[in-house]
Every structure is written in C-alpha cells, then in structure tokens.
Automatic annotation (TrEMBL):
Organism: Tsukamurella tyrosinosolvens
Superkingdom classification of source: Bacteria
InterPro entries hit by this protein: GntR_C, TF_FadR/GntR_C, Tscrpt_reg_HTH_GntR, WH-like_DNA-bd_sf, WH_DNA-bd_sf
Gene Ontology molecular function terms on file: DNA binding; DNA-binding transcription factor activity
Lineage: Bacteria, Bacillati, Actinomycetota, Actinomycetes, Mycobacteriales
HTH gntR-type domain span: 6-74
Record SUPFAM superfamilies: GntR ligand-binding domain-like, Winged helix' DNA-binding domain
Keywords tagged on the record: DNA-binding, Transcription, Transcription regulation
PROSITE patterns (UniProt xref): HTH_GNTR
Protein name as catalogued: Transcriptional regulator, GntR family
Amino acid sequence: MNQTTGSLSERIADGIVEIVRTEELQPGDALASSRQLAERFGVTTPTVREALRRLEAIDVVRFRHGSGTYVGDGVRRRVIGNPHAPRGDLRAALELADARLALEPSIAALAARHRSDADLARLAAATDNALRPPAGVASPDLHFHVVLAQASGNRLLGETIESLLESRRLDQVEIRHQYADRPRDHAEHLGLVNAVRDRDEHLAESLARDHLQHIRNAVADALAAQEAGR
C-alpha cells in the first residue's frame, strides 16, 4: 500500500483493492468486516468505512444490508467513469454523440472480425432495448452498444464504451429522448447484428457510422431549435 501520497482513506482504499488482488477475490466474494480491516491496517473503523464508500462509488465494493461488504464488478475495470459527473444538457448530449461517432464505427468493424457465438447471442438479446422508451436514469441490463464493443475482442474498448455511457448516462437518456424513433433504432441495431454475424467488417462499420450520425443529427437539430427559441 502506498504510504506517501493521498489521504489516509485513499491509501486504505488502495490497500483494500490490493487485498482483493492478492487473495484473488472475484465479484460477489465477501470482504472482511470493517472492524477486521481496521485492525489489519491499524486505523479506526470510520476510516475504513470512508475508504469503502470511495470504492462503492466506483463499484469496486458493494454493501448488502445485514450481510456485509462484497467485491463488485468494478474491480475488473481499468476505465472508471466519474460517479459524480454534473447533469448535462443538449450541448453535453451532442458532445457525447460526437464522441461516440468518432469511436464506435471502427469498434463495430472489430466486432465483426472477432465476435463469438456468445457475443451474437448477447447482441440479439440487447436489440429489443431499442424498442423501449428511456425510463429515468437506469441503464438496461444489456446495453446494445456496450455489448457490441465487448464483442470487439478488446476488453479495454468494451470498458471504455461502458464507462463512457455510464458516466454520461443522463446525456445518454437525453439522446434517447431526441432519437425517439424506436422502430428505426431497433431496425438499425438488427442490421448491425446481421453484419457482425456475417463478419462483414466494412458493412458493420458503415452501418454503425450511419446509425450514430442519425443520432447525432437528431440531437443537433434539437439543440438548434432550443437555441433558436431563446
């Protein structure tokens, strides 16, 4: 554990992550109690709890009321979004749409090259999300574009898209409000699945670019209308 930089709770958080790694704990495995961790690090229990709250914010640990503290899925991620990102607006949503347009078409081509049968099954399961209107800020269990990135064969790309969409989930909800043609969204996703299934890299890249351009245009039109009305 690094003893020279960061606050005490940050250093304890680093130490807890090191325990997870050295003991090869997996998501869902139980951690020692706060009291036991405090004794191990020679600090107070409140300090350990502060460290655990830091880790909870990025899903490295999860609290289960009446049960204890467990390792979260975030422990595997190398790209972590800001859990306290400010609420966005149409301009922020357009920024997100532009970022996705720059990144995701080439990712779709990689998915067509490297996808597995399991990836195809998950993509097929995720296509119906397009037919559902956005509800609050909750993310779907299977986000189509995250699954597409995960099919690329590059874990870091999958984590990058997942982190981007999760950290900017309010902007993503705004995008879905503006790109509200659910049947069209669904049809474009199905076309991408077929291209990825057929390992047609060029078609997958082209379809992804067209799809994301449609999304970008819808947000840009909404922003222009908003600014014209001021």
